[in-house]
Specification:
Keywords: ATP-binding, Cell membrane, Membrane, Nucleotide-binding, Repeat, Sugar transport, Translocase, Transport. GO terms for molecular function: ATP binding; ATP hydrolysis activity. This is Sugar ABC transporter ATP-binding protein. It holds the Pfam family ABC_tran. The protein folds into two domains: 235 residues, P-loop containing nucleotide triphosphate hydrolases (Rossmann fold, 3-Layer(aba) Sandwich); 152 residues, Rossmann fold (3-Layer(aba) Sandwich), CATH 3.40.50.300. Strands 6-9-10-3-11-12 form a six-stranded mixed β-sheet, with helices on both faces. It has a six-stranded mixed β-sheet with strand order 18-21-22-15-23-24, sandwiched between helices. It has a four-stranded antiparallel β-sheet with strand order 2-1-4-5, with no helix packed on it. Helices cover 34% and strands 27% of the residues. The two termini are 45 Å apart. With 492 residues, it is α/β, with parallel strands linked by helices. The chain is globular and about 70 Å long. It is built from 18 helices and 24 strands. Strand 23 and strand 24 form a beta hairpin. Bound molecules: adenosine-5'-triphosphate (ATP). Adenosine-5'-triphosphate binds next to strand 2, helix 1 and helix 15.
Length: 492
């Protein structure tokens, strides 16, 4: 018989103008991996922030190990045994790994901190979950995947009974994901529960015992994952059937719009060459760190190259900053929207129209109708969920922020559109919309660079795929040669 670890009943939470959660339930068993799924803005982050003590619910009750959990106090939740691993990790970069693991829980001997004891305990924890961590290394210098493991070990040092993971695989390579799964299996064996929030349904199917679905702030259902199909999950999340994930009707032209010749930058890229045609979707595959984003950033004027040439419509160009690239008809949806994308304190509407302000400001007056029509267009086509276009963008759910940035660059009517992981954190309904927008733009002659770590996505949207490895191009594949094996083979 399953033992209930956490039970949330009738939990509601409102923010000005939005009911983020409307009487939702969530029951997590001891030692289970419980998936939490739902579209962007469904309320997933809100409930996990309630469980982490960041927000206090407006109504409802939450019990943990049979006792009332209390609310709104982060320290209390940690002491009770709930830890959360956010997408942006919260480690102290200059501390050693074992110091981070034991942070807030430092062992003392006769009242004095004992580094030796801290290291011994950290080593014990690390062994328990079956991972190998460089305990003496400086944390900030390690890969994200390793840092994430440090976070998990830190949660264990606090004797957590429930570890909440918010999109934990979004910056991991396939191999690292496998490692994470192993760690999760080991946590289960020790009767520790995991609440796993993800938009990747394959992942949910593979790792979760049960799932809970939220839609528009409401509880839809909790079910066993076994025997549940991907389509059933999608239906439950979206409330309608989505069958055609990928629509490709565009046909690339033979008109070259971009040529990159032997592009290089010290420590980043070397000898990168490719061509891009009008109406073509050119995929870029490769492992994280292969140089795809760096290549995109050079094309968009965020860095200048040391070697090589960029030709747009046959003319040599060097972009010293993004506005020169924009003037040449290039737009880019960056990978890291927090650092490179949103203007956090401004409204979502402003965040969209920012790139095209010039078009509707005349004699220092804003043409409100024109501004509104652009905002409306992208609110509808990208299904952006916000209380109004004035809502401060940093208060939108992560996926909705991403959609707004996407809208911003579509509004520039680019000739070349660079998309760096455009669907990361985006729900399945909106993903489908984005794929059809990509197809539609290509049909209109826009040339698209599509950087994606999701192989099915890059294979199904692209006409050709450039595979990158260690900062250079390792293969260029035509559509008839696309296969996961070929891409992986050339990535490793
Ligand atoms: N601090 C806040 N102020 C105002 N509204 C907020 C705030 N936090 C969340 N919201 C709103 O609450 C709703 C639920 O957001 P939440 O972040 O919980 O969604 P989510 O399911 O995590 O979405 P995603 O998959 O995009 O991360 C959204 O409509 C969001 O705009």
């Amino acid at each position: 018989m399953a033992v209930v670890l956490l039970e949330a009943k009738g939990v509601s939470k409102s923010f000005p103008g939005v009911k983020a959660l409307d009487k939702v339930d969530l029951v997590i068993h001891e030692g289970e991996v419980h998936g939490l799924i739902g579209e962007n803005g469904a309320g997933k982050s809100t409930i996990i922030k309630i469980l982490a003590g960041v927000y206090t619910p407006d109504e409802g009750s939450i019990t943990f190990q049979g006792e009332n959990l209390g609310a709104g106090n982060i320290e209390n939740m940690l002491n009770r045994g709930i830890s959360i691993i956010y997408q942006e990790l919260c480690l102290v970069p200059y501390l050693k790994v074992y110091e981070n693991i034991m942070l807030g829980n430092e062992p003392c001997k006769r009242g004095i901190y004992s580094a030796k004891e801290a290291k011994r305990r950290a080593a014990q924890i690390v062994e328990k979950i079956g991972i190998d961590l460089p305990l003496e290394a400086e944390t900030g210098k390690l890969d994200i995947a390793v840092q994430q493991m440090v976070e998990i070990a830190k949660a264990l040092s606090r004797n957590s009974k429930l570890i909440i993971m918010d999109e934990p695989t979004s910056s991991l390579t396939n191999r690292e994901v496998e490692k994470l799964y192993k760690i999760i299996e080991n946590l289960k064996k020790q009767n520790i529960s995991v609440l796993f929030v993800s938009h990747k349904l394959e992942e949910i199917q593979e790792i979760c015992d049960r799932i809970t679905v939220f839609r528009d702030g409401q509880f839809i259902e909790t079910r066993d994952t076994k025997g549940l199909s991907r389509d059933e999950m999608v239906y439950s999340m979206v409330g309608r059937e989505i069958t055609n994930y990928y629509t490709t009707t565009h046909v690339p032209t033979k008109e070259k719009i971009l040529e990159v010749r032997n592009l290089g930058k010290k420590g980043m890229l070397r000898n990168v060459s490719f061509e891009l045609y009008k109406g073509e979707v050119l995929g870029f595959a490769g492992l994280i760190g292969a140089g795809r984003s760096e290549m995109a950033q050079i094309l968009f004027g965020l860095y200048t190259s040391d070697e090589g040439e960029i030709l747009v419509n046959g003319k040599k160009r060097v972009f010293h900053n993004p506005s020169e690239a924009v003037n040449a008809g290039i737009a880019m949806v960056p990978e890291n929207r927090k650092e490179q994308g949103i203007i956090p304190q401004m409204g979502v509407g402003y965040n969209i129209t920012l790139s095209v302000l010039k078009q509707f400001i005349k004699y220092a007056r804003v043409n409100k109708n024109r501004e509104k029509s652009i905002i409306d267009k992208y609110f509808t086509s990208l299904r952006i969920k916000a209380s109004s276009s004035e809502q401060i963008i940093s208060n939108l759910s992560g996926g909705n922020q991403q959609k707004a940035i996407f809208g911003r660059w579509l509004a520039t009517n680019p000739q070349i559109l660079i998309l760096d992981e455009p669907t990361r954190g985006i729900d399945i309904g909106a993903k489908t919309e984005i794929y059809s927008i990509i197809d539609e733009l290509a049909k209109q002659g826009v040339a698209i660079i599509m950087i994606s770590s999701e192989l099915p996505e890059v294979m199904n949207t692209s006409d050709r795929i450039v595979v990158m490895k260690h900062g250079t191009v390792s293969a260029t594949l035509n559509k008839e040669d696309f296969s996961q094996e070929k891409i992986m083979h050339n990535s490793l």
